[in-house]
Amino acid sequence: MKGLIVERAGPLALIQDGGRFGVRHLGVTQGGAADWVSLGWANWLLGNAPQAPGVEITVGGLTLYAEAPATLALTGADLGATLDDEPLVPGCRFTIAAGQRLAFESPRAGLRAYLAFPGGLDATPVLGSVASTVRESLGGLDGQGRVLTEGDCLTWSGGAGPERTLPSGVGTLPGDGERVTLALVGGAQIADFSGTSVFEAFNTAWTIDQRTDRMGVRLTGPELHYQGEGMVSEGIPLGAVQVPADGQPIILLNDRQTIGGYPRLGALTPLACSRLAQCQPGTEVWLTPVAAGQARDVHLRQLACWG
């Protein structure tokens, strides 16, 4: 079957969908699109289900050659995308003709771009998902979780839905002239941090460290002091904000471990995790407390946008 051929492979272009659920008790992590909101909007532009498989392109370096015409959608980071050397702005649905090349260079804004295909990419699910998890060798085109490499062929079986354009205000990336705030639901150990630490956690700018990947993001800032007793390892949710002995928080993302024993301030909301996934190292972010019920309402409103 004809499709898009990988002519140049970037450092981390992965097949991702909504993630792998119901398997954490097996020690298998969630995976899935780090910026699940951008993947959802890319799929919406084509009339797909929001969790349909697409390509997550981190920091660029990818070139695709079209063997056949297709209607695609691009959202998320601005990685200097071009179609036959003509600029392609994120947040659009577009047509690629046979013989054309779609290229992604390097980040101009954000970190991860999402490319959606009619009906979603063809791949065989592993444990209920095609999400690529390199560390666990699960998912992707070959079921082994590997990154896209030169010569891979991306195919799809569906058709694009009616023409759509993104609603106004959708697709704004962190740092577009505004403070980057990340909503956090307090956790079981938050009361065991010193009062000064809790105040500083929510009233000080944190800087995203160079040590950031799909497993987690390290923050640097004031040293937080945990005063509670030692912990038994417990399950780790998406967005968990762990505080190890050095007092510098680590926010755990899609490819995180399934259990951990560090105390936690709480967890970022799924929407905040999506936002964090687009923040480049050196970006300043602010944590802001939110009630669990409020976070749930906001999350449900996002899901309702896609019908």
Account of the protein in words:
It is a single chain. This protein has helices at 36-46, 195-203, 270-276, 292-304; strands at residues 4-8, 12-16, 54-58, 62-66, 70-78, 82-83, 86-87, 92-96, 101-104, 109-116, 153-154, 180-186, 206-212, 216-220, 234-235, 240-242, 250-252, 259-260, 264-268, 284-289. The protein has 307 residues and is an alpha+beta fold. The protein is 13% helix and 30% strand. Residues 25-305 form the Carboxyltransferase domain.
Runs in which pLDDT lies below 50 for 5 or more consecutive residues are none
Q: Spatial order of the strands in the main sheet?
A: 12-19-16-17-14-13-20
- Decide which structural class fits the backbone: alpha+beta
Total number of domains = 2
Tell me the distance between the termini.
31 Å
How confident overall, as mean pLDDT? 96
State the shape: globular
Radius of gyration: 19 Å
- Listing every helix as H and every strand as E from the N terminus to the C terminus, the arrangement reads EEHEEEEEEEEEEHEEEEEEEHEH
Q: Compute the number of helices.
A: 4
How much of the residues is beta strand, in percent?
25-35%
For the sheet with most strands, the description reads: 7 strands, mixed, barrel
How many beta-strand elements? Answer: 20
Helix content: 10-25%
Keywords: ATP-binding, Hydrolase, Nucleotide-binding
Pfam family, one: CT_A_B
Protein name: Biotin-dependent carboxyltransferase family protein
